[in-house]
Structure formats: C-alpha cells, structure tokens
From TrEMBL:
It is an enzyme of class 2 (transferase). GO terms for molecular function: N-acyl homoserine lactone synthase activity. Gene3D superfamilies: 3.40.630.30. This is Acyl-homoserine-lactone synthase. Keywords: Autoinducer synthesis, Quorum sensing, S-adenosyl-L-methionine, Transferase. Its EC number is 2.3.1.184. It comes from the Bacteria. It catalyses: a fatty acyl-[ACP] + S-adenosyl-L-methionine = an N-acyl-L-homoserine lactone + S-methyl-5'-thioadenosine + holo-[ACP] + H(+). Pfam families: Autoind_synth. GO terms for biological process: quorum sensing; signal transduction. Belongs to the autoinducer synthase family.
C-alpha cells in the first residue's frame, strides 16, 4: 500500500514519517555508509524542510513502513542543483514546474530475509508510485541523482534513465544524474512484469497539477 504524504496531510502520517527517517539512517548511514547527518537515529537533511512530497510503502497487514522515496520541485531547493551540480554539463540547468526530483529511495533491509520477491515488490510499488504521481501532477519528467547500485535497480525494473552528462565519482561511489520520462507506457513497463494491473497509490487528495 502506497501513501502520498504532502504538507496538507502530513499530520496524519507523523508516525510513518518518523519511521522513514529511521529507515533512511539505517540504509544510507549504517548500510551504505554515506556521509549523511543522523540525529537520534534519524537521517534528516535540509531538503526535508523544502516542502517535499513523500511516497511511503506500507505493509497492509502489519502497518509497518517498508520503503520510501522523496519528491521535490526543481523550481525550489533540490539536490541536483544545490549539492550535485558537478554532474551537470556546463550551463545546463534542470528547472521546470514540469520536472520534479526524486531522492532518498530506500527499502527496509530486513526484507532481504523475506526473499527477493518482497524487495522487488516494494521497489516496483515505489517506482510505479513515482510515475503515477507524475501522471496526476502533469509532469513530463522526474530527475534523480543516483549511484551505480540504483542504476542497476532501475534497469532491472524496466525503468532506465536518460543520463545527463557523465557519471562522477563522489565519495565512495560513481554517481549519475538521469531523467525519467513520465508516461503510461513507462508505468506499464514497470508494472507488467510484476503482475500489477491497478494503481498502487492508496489516495491522492491534494496533489496539484504542475501544468496548470
């Protein structure tokens, strides 16, 4: 089950948002050993203060958070422009109300004990959710900064990115910037191998249309 959390309904999901920050600390700080800020066991950065939208994958039986991803408008603060501009060719600016940025894609490492099928299911759910949000909001693209690990996940999920510029080694990993064109065809390519034939988002009450 996938929930869309934004400023207007965030109070309803405070507990899950807190779980998300704990999960991000486990994934990005403990498991991947990224240089991120962790406070009281929770990974939080400045972009969490920029009115992001979150997609939260929740186990419908247990109510436990199993995965999450964040979306930011490229017309405001975002990671590609403000942190990883080295990935952009000279003079290129990715800024449009029709392009949002995804970041902090993470899945509960404990799901590894449940086998690949559950991990793949949550991955597919999050990716389909990103496309669904894009279609609802009238986006043309989602841009993302990601490492080689995520590049492999995108390819294996039939969700390849159009790479912007050249990959750069940042810290421990090769880092890429890529654009994903939002379309119903992309949703079908991701969902069909997993046997999904229905929208994954549980409810969207307030999401604005970026093209309006």
């Amino acid at each position: 089950m996938l929930y869309v959390v934004e400023s207007k309904n965030r109070a309803k999901f405070n507990a899950l948002i807190d779980e998300m920050h704990v999960l991000r600390a486990r994934v990005f700080h403990e498991r991947l050993q990224w240089d991120v800020n962790v406070f009281n066991g929770r990974e939080v950065d400045v972009f969490d203060e920029a009115d992001p939208l979150y997609l939260l994958s929740v186990n419908p039986q247990t109510g436990k958070l199993e995965g999450a991803v964040r979306l930011l408008a490229t017309t405001g603060p975002n990671m590609l422009r403000d942190v990883f501009s080295v990935l952009l060719p000279d003079g290129l600016v990715v800024e449009s109300p029709l392009i949002w940025e995804s970041s902090r894609f993470c899945i509960d490492p404990d799901l590894a004990g449940s086998g690949a099928s559950r991990i793949n299911r949550v991955t597919t759910e999050l990716l389909c959710g990103l496309v669904e949000v894009g279609l609802i909001a009238g986006l043309t693209h989602i841009v993302s900064v990601f490492d080689a690990r995520m590049a492999r996940i995108f390819r294996s999920s039939n969700c390849p990115a159009d790479t912007i510029g050249k990959p750069v080694r940042i810290g421990r990993v090769m880092t890429y910037a890529g654009l994903f064109e939002i379309s119903q065809d992309l949703w079908n390519d991701i969902a069909s191998p997993a046997g999904m034939n229905f929208p994954v988002i549980a409810e969207v009450q307030h999401l604005p249309n970026a093209a309006a």
